[in-house]
Design a protein that fits this description.
Layout lengths: L1 H29 E6 L13 E6 L13 E5 L4 H4 L1 E8 L4 E3 L10 H7 L5 E3 L4 E5 L9 H4 L2 E2 L3 E10 L8 E4 L10
Antiparallel strand pairs: 1-2, 2-9, 3-4, 3-9, 4-7, 5-6, 7-8, 9-10
Family: Belongs to the peptidase S26 family. IMP1 subfamily.
GO cellular component, one term: mitochondrial inner membrane peptidase complex
Protein name: Mitochondrial inner membrane protease subunit
Length: 183
Protein backbone atom coordinates (compact mmCIF):
# COMPACT_ATOMS: atom_id res chain seq x y z
CA UNK A 1 0.00 0.00 0.00
CA UNK A 2 2.72 2.45 1.01
CA UNK A 3 4.82 1.57 -2.07
CA UNK A 4 1.94 2.29 -4.45
CA UNK A 5 1.21 5.65 -2.82
CA UNK A 6 4.90 6.61 -2.97
CA UNK A 7 5.00 5.75 -6.71
CA UNK A 8 1.92 7.93 -7.33
CA UNK A 9 3.47 10.84 -5.43
CA UNK A 10 6.79 10.35 -7.23
CA UNK A 11 5.01 10.20 -10.60
CA UNK A 12 3.11 13.42 -9.79
CA UNK A 13 6.31 15.17 -8.75
CA UNK A 14 8.04 14.01 -11.93
CA UNK A 15 5.22 15.35 -14.16
CA UNK A 16 5.14 18.60 -12.19
CA UNK A 17 8.90 19.06 -12.50
CA UNK A 18 8.80 18.29 -16.23
CA UNK A 19 5.99 20.83 -16.73
CA UNK A 20 7.92 23.51 -14.86
CA UNK A 21 11.07 22.76 -16.87
CA UNK A 22 9.23 22.94 -20.19
CA UNK A 23 7.56 26.20 -19.14
CA UNK A 24 10.90 27.66 -18.08
CA UNK A 25 12.58 26.68 -21.36
CA UNK A 26 9.62 28.07 -23.33
CA UNK A 27 9.76 31.48 -21.61
CA UNK A 28 13.57 31.62 -21.59
CA UNK A 29 14.30 30.70 -25.20
CA UNK A 30 11.10 30.82 -27.29
CA UNK A 31 8.60 33.45 -26.16
CA UNK A 32 8.19 36.21 -23.62
CA UNK A 33 5.06 37.87 -22.31
CA UNK A 34 4.27 41.25 -20.86
CA UNK A 35 1.79 44.07 -20.55
CA UNK A 36 1.73 47.12 -22.81
CA UNK A 37 -0.32 50.22 -22.24
CA UNK A 38 -0.29 53.87 -23.27
CA UNK A 39 -1.23 55.90 -26.31
CA UNK A 40 2.04 55.74 -28.28
CA UNK A 41 1.00 52.69 -30.35
CA UNK A 42 -2.61 53.70 -31.02
CA UNK A 43 -4.54 52.74 -33.13
CA UNK A 44 -2.63 49.45 -33.48
CA UNK A 45 -2.84 48.74 -29.76
CA UNK A 46 -5.50 49.74 -27.29
CA UNK A 47 -4.35 52.46 -24.89
CA UNK A 48 -5.92 50.71 -21.89
CA UNK A 49 -3.48 47.84 -22.25
CA UNK A 50 -2.88 44.51 -23.89
CA UNK A 51 -1.11 41.35 -22.80
CA UNK A 52 1.58 40.80 -25.45
CA UNK A 53 3.37 37.70 -26.68
CA UNK A 54 6.86 38.32 -28.07
CA UNK A 55 8.99 35.90 -30.09
CA UNK A 56 12.55 35.67 -28.79
CA UNK A 57 13.66 34.37 -32.18
CA UNK A 58 14.17 38.06 -33.00
CA UNK A 59 16.10 38.89 -29.82
CA UNK A 60 18.98 41.33 -30.34
CA UNK A 61 17.45 42.36 -33.68
CA UNK A 62 18.02 39.05 -35.52
CA UNK A 63 15.67 38.93 -38.49
CA UNK A 64 13.85 42.16 -37.58
CA UNK A 65 12.59 44.15 -40.57
CA UNK A 66 11.23 47.63 -41.11
CA UNK A 67 7.56 47.57 -40.08
CA UNK A 68 7.91 44.99 -37.29
CA UNK A 69 6.80 45.86 -33.76
CA UNK A 70 9.52 45.11 -31.24
CA UNK A 71 9.81 45.03 -27.48
CA UNK A 72 13.01 46.53 -26.15
CA UNK A 73 14.74 47.67 -23.00
CA UNK A 74 14.36 51.45 -22.99
CA UNK A 75 17.83 52.96 -23.56
CA UNK A 76 17.24 56.06 -21.40
CA UNK A 77 14.40 55.31 -19.00
CA UNK A 78 15.28 51.68 -18.22
CA UNK A 79 14.65 52.08 -14.49
CA UNK A 80 11.25 53.79 -14.72
CA UNK A 81 9.86 52.33 -17.97
CA UNK A 82 11.63 49.00 -18.23
CA UNK A 83 10.30 47.65 -21.51
CA UNK A 84 8.84 49.61 -24.41
CA UNK A 85 7.08 48.60 -27.64
CA UNK A 86 7.52 50.53 -30.90
CA UNK A 87 7.59 49.92 -34.66
CA UNK A 88 10.90 49.63 -36.53
CA UNK A 89 11.08 52.36 -39.18
CA UNK A 90 14.76 52.14 -40.10
CA UNK A 91 17.51 49.52 -40.14
CA UNK A 92 21.31 49.95 -40.36
CA UNK A 93 22.22 52.04 -43.40
CA UNK A 94 18.71 53.48 -43.89
CA UNK A 95 18.09 57.23 -43.88
CA UNK A 96 15.23 58.39 -41.66
CA UNK A 97 13.62 61.75 -40.87
CA UNK A 98 14.23 62.90 -37.31
CA UNK A 99 11.80 65.81 -37.39
CA UNK A 100 8.68 64.02 -38.57
CA UNK A 101 6.04 66.61 -39.57
CA UNK A 102 3.21 66.98 -37.05
CA UNK A 103 4.93 64.88 -34.44
CA UNK A 104 4.73 67.54 -31.72
CA UNK A 105 7.67 66.18 -29.73
CA UNK A 106 10.04 69.13 -29.63
CA UNK A 107 10.23 71.90 -27.07
CA UNK A 108 9.69 75.37 -28.57
CA UNK A 109 13.40 76.31 -28.53
CA UNK A 110 14.27 73.11 -30.41
CA UNK A 111 11.61 73.85 -33.02
CA UNK A 112 13.19 77.25 -33.67
CA UNK A 113 16.42 75.48 -34.59
CA UNK A 114 14.89 72.86 -36.91
CA UNK A 115 11.91 74.71 -38.41
CA UNK A 116 12.11 74.70 -42.17
CA UNK A 117 14.91 72.13 -42.26
CA UNK A 118 14.62 68.44 -42.95
CA UNK A 119 16.86 66.58 -40.58
CA UNK A 120 17.81 63.16 -41.91
CA UNK A 121 20.07 60.78 -40.11
CA UNK A 122 21.66 57.55 -41.29
CA UNK A 123 20.96 54.63 -38.96
CA UNK A 124 24.37 53.37 -37.79
CA UNK A 125 25.49 49.75 -37.91
CA UNK A 126 24.18 47.71 -34.99
CA UNK A 127 21.19 50.02 -34.49
CA UNK A 128 17.62 50.49 -35.69
CA UNK A 129 15.24 53.46 -35.60
CA UNK A 130 11.91 52.98 -33.84
CA UNK A 131 8.75 55.10 -33.65
CA UNK A 132 5.31 54.78 -32.16
CA UNK A 133 2.31 54.59 -34.48
CA UNK A 134 0.86 57.65 -32.69
CA UNK A 135 3.74 60.02 -33.49
CA UNK A 136 2.40 62.95 -31.50
CA UNK A 137 2.46 61.00 -28.22
CA UNK A 138 5.43 58.69 -28.65
CA UNK A 139 8.82 58.83 -26.93
CA UNK A 140 10.95 57.02 -29.45
CA UNK A 141 14.14 57.27 -31.54
CA UNK A 142 13.29 60.85 -32.45
CA UNK A 143 14.06 61.64 -28.81
CA UNK A 144 16.64 59.05 -27.69
CA UNK A 145 18.29 58.37 -31.06
CA UNK A 146 18.91 55.09 -32.87
CA UNK A 147 18.22 52.04 -30.72
CA UNK A 148 21.03 49.49 -30.28
CA UNK A 149 19.86 46.15 -31.69
CA UNK A 150 21.25 44.48 -28.55
CA UNK A 151 18.40 46.07 -26.53
CA UNK A 152 15.66 44.34 -28.57
CA UNK A 153 14.04 41.63 -26.44
CA UNK A 154 11.75 40.22 -29.13
CA UNK A 155 9.22 40.83 -31.88
CA UNK A 156 5.59 41.33 -30.89
CA UNK A 157 3.62 38.53 -32.58
CA UNK A 158 0.27 38.60 -30.75
CA UNK A 159 -1.77 40.39 -28.15
CA UNK A 160 -4.56 39.32 -25.82
CA UNK A 161 -7.33 41.75 -24.99
CA UNK A 162 -10.55 40.91 -23.20
CA UNK A 163 -13.38 42.88 -24.80
CA UNK A 164 -15.83 44.28 -22.28
CA UNK A 165 -18.70 41.95 -21.50
CA UNK A 166 -16.84 38.79 -22.52
CA UNK A 167 -15.31 36.07 -20.43
CA UNK A 168 -12.42 35.05 -22.65
CA UNK A 169 -9.74 37.25 -24.23
CA UNK A 170 -9.55 37.78 -27.97
CA UNK A 171 -6.24 36.99 -29.67
CA UNK A 172 -4.96 39.59 -32.09
CA UNK A 173 -2.06 38.52 -34.32
CA UNK A 174 0.38 41.24 -35.31
CA UNK A 175 2.08 41.25 -38.68
CA UNK A 176 4.38 43.72 -40.35
CA UNK A 177 2.25 46.86 -40.51
CA UNK A 178 3.70 48.30 -43.69
CA UNK A 179 1.98 47.96 -47.03
CA UNK A 180 3.47 48.41 -50.47
CA UNK A 181 2.36 51.51 -52.34
CA UNK A 182 1.64 51.46 -56.06
CA UNK A 183 3.13 54.49 -57.80
Amino acid sequence: MFGRKAREIGSGLLYGTQSLLIGHLFLTYAYDTGDAYGVSMMPTMDSSGEFLIMSKKYRRGRGVQVGDMVSFKHPVLAESMGRSVKRVVGMPGDFVLRNTPGAGIYREEEMLQVRGKTIQIKVPEGHCYVAGDNLKWSRDSRIFGPLPLALIRGKVVAGLKRPSGTLFPAIKKYHNGLQEVDE
